[in-house]
Each structure stands twice: as C-alpha cells, then as structure tokens.
C-alpha cells in the first residue's frame, strides 16, 4: 500500500485479530433461516474436527508456497549486483515480483479460509461456472468449495481454496433461500490463528436438513459477532461477511462512473476497499499497469483504512488525500473555512487562467535593451505580435515562451544586423545572430521580464500576495481580503489543502519547465527551503519503509536499507505502479475511488478527473454528511460536467455500525439537515440508551470520560472546532492514554479527542459528543456535522453539555453529573 505524500509503507505481518464472542440469532433482511448453534455438541465437534483437517491442509500449502517463493527470492538475490544493466534490471524485476508475492502470502495468514459452500448435486457447473471444487469428487454428488482470501491449488492444479473475488465465490455472498444460486449450504468458518473455533451454517434448502446440520445452524452469527467486536483503531476487512447488497456493488462493472450512496455505517468505505481488491483481481493486467487511486478525506482516515487492502493481498494501491495529490507539496497549513470554500469554487479555474494571462501582458511602451555601444528596441507592435504568436501556439505558458522568445530574437537579430551595417542576411546568419543574442545577459533579463518561467507555486504566491494581481484575475474586493497573504516564511507551512487543486490547475496551464532551466533560474528561497525539508522527510520515510520491507521479506541480511531505498527512488523497474504514480502529477489511473466524496470542492473534482481520463471511477459518499462548505449538495452538480449525466447510482440501506438506539437520536438531527431525509436502518440493537449529562463547566468532563473507557476498545470524544484545543488539553491531561488531535496516535489510543472533521469516516466503541449546541451552530453545515458525530459509535453514545440541550437531542436520557460537578442533570 502506498500513501501519497509519504514513502510507501510495507505490508505488515498480520497480528492475531480480536475475536468477538458468538452472537445470537437475529433475522436480517437478506439472511436465510437460522438457528442457534450448539444443541448437538458431538456432531458439532465432529464437524469442527473435519474442518480443522481441511484448514490445516490449506495452511500447509501456504507454508510451502512461502518457502518456495522465499527460496526463489534468495536465489535471485544471491546473484549479486553484477552483470550487464539488462541483467541487473531483470534480476530486480524478479526480486520485486517474489518480494511482492511473499508479502501477499504473509498478508493472508489470518482468516486464510473463512467459508465454504456446498452445491446441490449437478448444479455446481451452472451455479459457479467453475469446472471443479474441492471435497467430494464425482458426478451427481454434492460439491464443496472452500472460500478464502486467496486462491490456492495443489501441484496437480487441483483447487484447494477459491479466491473470494472469483466468480465461483459469488454465491457465498449472494445466495438467499429465495434465490439459492445452486447452493445447499453456506458455511462461515471462524478461526483463531490456524485453529477453527466455530462454524455457522445457513441452510438455503431447509428441506434437505440432516441431523448433523442442526448442530451448526446459526445464521447471522458471523455477521453479528463481527459487528459486536471491539474496535481496534484500524478498519478490518469484511471478506467473510460481505452482504448481498454490498457484493453487488463490489462486483459491479469496472467501466464508467459508479456512485455509491448510503447513510453512516452502511459500509461505503469498506465496500469501496473490497471493490478495489475485486477490480484488481478481475482486471489485473489493466489495473496493475495503470494503478488504482483511493482518495480519502484526511491522513488519519487513510491510516485507519490502510491495512484493509494488504489484508486482502493487495499492496499496490495509492491512498491519498486531496492535499497530498500534488507531488512535492505538503498541504499542512490551516485556513479559514470561508477562504477554503472560495478556493474550491469552479470559477477559480478562470481566476487561475487570468492570473497566468496577467504574466503574459506586454508593457505599454517599448522595451530597450542596451547592448555595448548600441541599444536594441522592441516596440509595442513587435511585442504584441510575439505574444499573439505564443498564445496561438496553444502551448502551456512555459512552452509557449519558446515561441515568443524566438520571435523577439528574430526581431532583435534583424535590428542588430542593420546596426552593424549589414543589409539583408541569410537564414544561417540570422540563426547565428539569434543564438548570440540569446546568451547576452541583458537580452535574457529582458525576455525573462516579458514572459518569465513560472512554477505553480510562484504563480499562486504572486497572486495571494498582490491585491492588484487578484483584482486583475477577477476577484472582488471582499474575496481579495479573504485570500490576501504574506509570502512564505522558511520552516512554516504555507500551502493548504484547498491550494492543492489550484496548484494542479496552474500546473496544467503552465506546463513543465526543463530541469536545467529550473536549476538555472534558481528557485525562490522559500521554495528551495520547503523542497529541502520535504526531501529530508521523504528520505527518512523511504529508509523506514525499506527497512520494513527487508525485514518482512527476509532480505534484511542481504541488502542494506539505504541501498534498497535508493533503488526504489531511481527510475528502476523495481518501483511499484503506486509508487511511480505517487511521484507523477500527470499519471492517469486505471480506476479512481473517491471516499467521503461529498467533501470534495468543485476544484478538487477537476483535479481528480484529470487523474482519471477514462472515467472508470467509484464515488462513495453521503450528501447528508457534507461538512465542508465547499462540498457537494447534489451528485449531478459536481459530476455532470465530467460524465455528461452518465453514471450508475447504487444505494446501501443498512447500517452495520450504529445500533438502533443511537440511530433514533441521529435521525432527529438528520431532520435538521433536510426534511424528508431518511436514516439507514440499523441491523442491531444493543439495549444501551444514549444519555446526556449537563455540567456547569467542562472541568468535570475527564471524570465522565474515565468512567466510560472501554477495556481493549476505543473511545472517541468529539468536540466543536472552536474548543478543540482547550478540551483536548483538558482530557489529555486528566485521562490516561488520551490523545488530542488527529493522527495515527489518535487511532491507537484508548481515548481520542477529535473534531468532527477529523473523526469523519472513523468509528469508536463509545462516543462522547461535547457541546452539541456549539457543533450545530459554529458552521453553516452544523446539522450535518452533529449527525456525523452522533453516528461514529458502535456501542455507547453520550453527550456532555454546559448550555441547554438542542431540542433535536430530546431523546437522550438525562444522567446525573458526577458528584460535586454540577447540580442534577437538567435540559
Ligand atoms: N458486511 C459486513 N460485515 C461486517 N462488518 C461490516 C459489514 N459492512 C459494514 N461493516 C462494518 O460497519 C462499519 C461501518 O462501515 P464503513 O465505515 O465502511 O461505513 P460508511 O458507510 O463508510 O460509514 P460513514 O459514512 O459513516 O463513514 C465498519 O466497522 C465495517 O467494518
């Protein structure tokens, strides 16, 4: 997995996941008849032992493949760094291939096999389109296929395990009693490490139930156990429990724009990630070459989801925020939401274009160039003619400069010839004179002033620091005030997330500058300092990554991290597609997935669409959760300009995260977002009633947080933006292990204090929302923000407030404040 703006991270060796206690039966919309397991323990144990034998065979095969791959890798590396360039590059390619394969084989250790389907006699061919399965062979008899994270076969090409993405596995996710797709039974295998610890069966043809079948019936147990499991701070894959409505989206066609809408917790993110894995599996060749990009709302969210794809065996996908999509720029500065909203408006494209044109204006009077005893002169007409030629070339600014320069050098050369007393000169003499003049410092300086080389950074800095330039680019006085800034100061972050699409837009209009020219025109001080800082950080991360990969693949003793990292850096076949794409602004991806897509501004969409000219995209979001004032109000508004109205829309309707008790509260807030909006239906209840505590002041908050901490789980304290620093400091000081603010640390901490923006897309076992009244009123999208905050919990929800409780939260059950903290709870 590669994260943009940072060096790629190595897939990590999975650790043992936390397992949920078995859950009881419930009736879900897509699930067939079910009964509680365990009433015939002996039959059940026999079944467990049978499955254990099979699963052990699979792990033995996995071990064998790992050993084999490791041996091949060792052989390639043992050849050493000798031979021709071609030999070396072939060896590197093989080494990369084996190292990648090895990483994938390690990544599937946990939950290697999680399911099995039994096909009714003679039905298997039509149901699966597959020639063979495993288990009992022979025509006219029941066939069994085991489903797992990857496909495995033995040395005679007999299939042992079917990859969950293969067509043969589809009935495992889609079959229902009404449409059994040839299945008699679907079995979920629960494993701990390599041990099979549980079996849950869905019988799709109840008429054929045998006595032994009764022992393992349990229906939705696998799903409910997974939903009730404690959160670890990292998203897990759901490969064992994908639901039918989700599976249809995961396996949807690669081409065209697919929009997936759904309320909070409906699995949009997790489905999008499984779709990426499915598409890579099904269209491997196309997508491996062009790559897959996943855009997420913030770096913390990307850390939250980054393990999902490696756990599905896919490590070569680029994860990026909008702010990280411009190579070499770190968008780390904060800015006022109003400024960000303005920068996000589509008309900024015209502003940037006007800002470029502003640099292409010619002076009103003539330009005089002293040259020894003579002075050459470019009059207004020649200047304008040169400019028109450059514009007519339709090349980007930095390339069109060559057209203008050539024209003006010709004018100057003719003039110089006349001054030197030469009459008509031929083409060769003219060329010689042009080249001579080109190297004259005075000529170069004059041409540079007329049409300078521009980097996107220089263009934007010159715009933001000059009200005159902003006015000429079409910005109104109030808008200029909003955007006006000082020049960058060394060591201080300058670029904001909303600047990135503008830099990208500018880069399109300006075009590349020759490397040599860039060096010669010496970057501005601050740009050079920023570039150096970025390079040092990249270097540090690259080394850390290299070390991780080497350890993972057992190569650490054969090659040092520095050399490995250097090889990654160069233009070597060793670079993965995602790594190459991350470094190339103009890379066109084979498929782009945008998560929390409602947050993207119009300018951000322009940038994302440039990365995906084929428009093979999955767009995932919920308009009711839009928090950014630059975000979307309708999909048609943001997508029609690029898709000509052609897009497929799918809806997810069930909420797997938030229990019904919490959704009832959230639904009242959703009504404030828009009348008629419907919250998704929760698949479970917990019996825990959401509560509210009123305090006189927030000094009592840490005590409440301490009382709610979940053993081995995660608690999120969600706070208003304007009070984030103060409340974060208070909780971090008084609650052990609490972390204030976003970042990987917040994900790993037992308690994280976050704003709604930072908590977007995340989830916690328990959530405490602080000062909901302020969250509602402090931004124009306040109701959406509060809706997002309330729907982050998988278990408990509490609200702590000092002012009156907003009427929309009337369903919360009032709770006593801790003794001495305030009087009795009141509304
Ligand atoms: N089929 C499933 N099996 C097990 N868990 C699931 C399933 N579908 C979703 N979940 C779980 O539900 C939770 C919510 O999923 P996810 O974060 O993808 O939802 P979302 O629609 O993106 O939510 P939001 O819009 O609020 O960010 C996650 O913990 C996810 O693992």
Automatic annotation (TrEMBL):
Q: Where is composition skewed (Basic and acidic residues) in this entry?
A: 36-49
One cellular component (GO) term of this entry: cytosol
> In which residues is ATP bound?
262-269
Q: Which GO terms describe its biological process?
A: recombinational repair
Q: Where is the composition biased (Low complexity)?
A: 1-25
Q: Is ATP-binding found in the keyword set?
A: yes
What name does the UniProt record give this protein?
Answer: DNA helicase IV
Q: Which organism was this protein described from? A: Thermopolyspora flexuosa
Question: What lineage is this protein's organism placed in?
Answer: Bacteria, Bacillati, Actinomycetota, Actinomycetes, Streptosporangiales
């Amino acid at each position: 997995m590669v994260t943009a703006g940072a060096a790629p991270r190595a897939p990590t060796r999975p650790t043992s996941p936390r397992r949920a206690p078995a859950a009881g039966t419930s009736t879900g919309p897509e699930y067939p008849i079910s009964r509680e397991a365990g009433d015939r323990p002996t039959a059940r144990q026999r079944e467990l032992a049978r499955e254990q034998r099979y699963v052990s065979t699979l792990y033995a095969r996995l071990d064998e493949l790992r050993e084999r791959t490791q041996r091949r890798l060792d052989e390639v590396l043992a050849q050493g760094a000798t031979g021709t360039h071609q030999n070396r590059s072939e060896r590197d390619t093989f080494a990369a291939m084996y190292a990648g394969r090895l990483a994938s084989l390690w990544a599937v250790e946990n939950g290697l096999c999680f399911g099995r389907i039994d096909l009714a006699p003679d039905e298997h061919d039509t149901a699966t389109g597959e020639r063979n399965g495993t288990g009992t062979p022979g025509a006219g008899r029941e066939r069994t296929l085991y489903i797992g994270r990857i496909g495995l076969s033995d040395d005679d090409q007999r299939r042992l395990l079917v990859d969950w993405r293969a067509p043969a596995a589809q009935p495992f996710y889609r079959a229902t009693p009404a449409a059994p797709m040839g299945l008699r039974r679907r079995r979920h295998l629960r494993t701990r490490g390599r041990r099979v610890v549980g079996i849950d069966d869905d019988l799709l043809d109840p008429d054929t139930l045998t006595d032994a079948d009764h022992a393992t019936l349990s229906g939705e147990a696998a799903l409910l156990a997974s939903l009730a499991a404690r959160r670890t701070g990292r998203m897990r894959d759901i490969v064992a429990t994908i639901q039918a409505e989700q599976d249809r989206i995961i396996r949807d066609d690669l081409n065209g724009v697919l929009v997936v809408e759904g309320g909070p917790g409906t699995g949009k993110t997790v489905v999008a990630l499984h779709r990426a894995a499915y598409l890579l599996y099904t269209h491997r060749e196309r997508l491996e070459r062009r790559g897959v990009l996943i855009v997420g709302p913030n770096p913390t969210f990307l850390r939250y989801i980054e393990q999902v794809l490696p756990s599905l065996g896919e490590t070569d996908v680029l994860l990026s925020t909008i702010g990280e999509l411009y190579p070499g720029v770190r968008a780390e500065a904060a800015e006022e939401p109003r400024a960000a909203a303005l920068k996000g408006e589509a008309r900024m494209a015209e502003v940037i274009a006007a800002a470029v044109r502003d640099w292409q204006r010619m002076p009103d009077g003539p330009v005089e160039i002293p040259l020894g005893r003579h002075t050459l002169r470019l009059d207004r007409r020649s200047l304008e003619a040169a400019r028109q030629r450059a514009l007519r070339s339709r090349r980007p600014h930095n390339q069109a400069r060559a057209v203008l320069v050539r024209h003006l050098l010709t004018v100057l050369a003719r003039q110089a010839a006349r001054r030197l007393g030469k009459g008509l000169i031929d083409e060769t003499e003219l060329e010689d004179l042009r080249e001579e003049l080109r190297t004259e410092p005075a000529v170069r300086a004059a041409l540079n002033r007329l049409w300078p080389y521009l980097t996107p950074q220089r263009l934007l800095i010159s715009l933001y620091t000059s009200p005159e330039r902003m006015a000429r680019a079409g910005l109104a006085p109030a808008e200029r005030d909003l955007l006006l800034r000082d020049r960058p100061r060394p060591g201080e972050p300058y670029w904001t997330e909303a600047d990135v699409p503008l830099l990208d837009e500018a880069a399109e209009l300006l075009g590349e500058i020759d490397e040599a020219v860039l060096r010669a025109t010496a970057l501005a001080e601050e740009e050079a300092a920023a570039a150096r800082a970025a390079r040092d950080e990249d270097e540090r991360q690259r080394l850390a990554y290299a070390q991780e990969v080497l350890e993972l693949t057992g190569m650490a003793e054969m090659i040092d991290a520095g050399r490995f990292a250097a090889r990654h850096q160069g233009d070597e076949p060793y670079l993965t597609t995602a790594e190459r794409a991350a470094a190339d602004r103009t890379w066109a991806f084979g498929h782009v997935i945008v998560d929390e897509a409602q947050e993207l501004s119009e300018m951000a969409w322009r940038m994302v669409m440039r990365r995906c000219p084929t428009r093979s995209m999955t767009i995932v979001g919920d308009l009711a959760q839009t928090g950014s004032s630059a975000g979307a109000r309708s999909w048609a508004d943001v997508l029609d300009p690029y898709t000509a109205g052609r897009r497929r829309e799918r809806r997810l309707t069930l909420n797997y995260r938030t229990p019904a008790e919490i959704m009832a509260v959230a639904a009242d807030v959703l009504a404030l977002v828009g009348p008629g909006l419907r919250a998704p239906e929760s698949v479970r209840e917990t019996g825990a009633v959401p509560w509210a505590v009123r305090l006189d002041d927030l000094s009592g908050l840490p005590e409440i947080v301490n009382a709610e901490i979940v053993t081995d789980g995660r608690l999120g304290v969600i706070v208003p933006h304007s009070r984030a620093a103060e409340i974060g400091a208070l909780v971090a000081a008084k609650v052990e292990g609490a972390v204030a603010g976003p970042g990987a640390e917040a994900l790993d901490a037992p308690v994280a204090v976050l704003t709604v923006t930072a908590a977007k897309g995340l989830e916690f076992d328990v959530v405490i929302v602080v000062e909901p009244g302020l969250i509602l009123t402090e931004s124009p999208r306040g109701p959406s923000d509060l809706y997002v905050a309330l729907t982050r919990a998988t278990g408990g929800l509490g609200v702590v407030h000092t002012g009156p409780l907003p009427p929309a939260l009337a369903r919360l059950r009032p709770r006593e404040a801790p003794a001495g903290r305030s009087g009795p709870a009141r509304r």
